[in-house]
Amino acid sequence: MLKAELRREALARRRALSEEEVARRSEALWLQLHQLFPLREWQWLHLFLPIARQKEPDTWPLIQQLWAELPELQLAVPVVQPDGHTLRHFHLTPETRLENNRWGIPEPVGAAEILPPQLDAILVPLLAFDEVGHRVGYGKGFYDQFLAQCRPDALRIGLSLEPPVLRIEDAWPGDVPLHACITPKQVWWFPEAK
Fold first, then answer.
1. CA-wise closest residue to 74 among 94, 98, 49
2. Buried b / exposed e across 59-74, counting CB within 10 Å, b at 16+?
3. Which pLDDT score, from 0 to 100, does residue 193 have?
4. Contact at 8 Å (CB) between 165 and 135?
5. Residue 84 — left, alpha, or beta (φ > 0 → left; ψ -120 to 50 → alpha)?
6. Would you give the distance in Å from CA 47 to the centre of its chain?
7. Model-level pTM?
8. Residue-wise pLDDT tens digits, 114-146
9. Confidence of residue 194 (pLDDT cuts 50, 70, 90)
10. Which helix (H) or strand (E) holds 136?
11. CA gap 131, 63 in Å, rounded
């Protein structure tokens, strides 16, 4: 399938989910993350703050759990820049003040900036992914630019409320593939991802 078609279908399916179903599937994602990834070995984990109206995986329960159980693991979150095309990244702590941007995404205010090479792992939002690690997002290219700035050994982990599609037909060389993608029922690994 083509990205535009996948994006449209995935958004429709996700918007049809109840809040309870999003919460249930999100909880299953966090269980997989805890069981199958070396969280204690990481110093910096980058994650996103969910856009509730888009029914994105709810990262807040994970954030609260990490602050309580792994306070040594530092968290970073993205901030969309005024140009509307790039991201910068900032430290998220329990004391961080947040304000919603124009898309309704909570963003830190006055927090310390974190550079992409500092990150050990990145939880990547997406709408769909395929069986070789390509993904479809909202189509702005924010994460492809960002992931290209990270260290090659930083784990790129997609978060999907649904299983993969067979193949994204219009993936191109600028698309940065995932190393893994967590779904509520299993983790998909992509050993060929560079």
1. 94
2. beebbeebeeeeeebb
3. 67
4. no
5. left
6. 6
7. 0.94
8. 999 999 999 999 999 999 999 998 877 889 899
9. low
10. strand 135-136
11. 28
Contacts of 40 (CB under 8 A, 6+ apart): 70, 73
Say what the pLDDT of residue 177 is.
Answer: 93
CB 106 within 8 A of CB 49: yes
Would you kindly state where each structural domain of the chain is located, as residue ranges? 3-189
Residue 4: the pLDDT is 93
Name 75's bridge partners. 45, 92
Half-sphere exposure of 102 (CA within 13 A, CB side): 5
Residue 79 pLDDT: 94
Average pLDDT over the chain, rounded to an integer: 93
What 3-state DSSP class applies to 3?
helix
The predicted-structure confidence for 80-100, as pLDDT tens digits, reads as follows: 888 878 899 999 999 999 998
Q: Which CATH architecture has domain 3-189?
A: 3-Layer(aba) Sandwich (3.40)
* CA–CA dist 83, 87 (Å, integer): 9
Element (H, E) at 26: helix 19-36
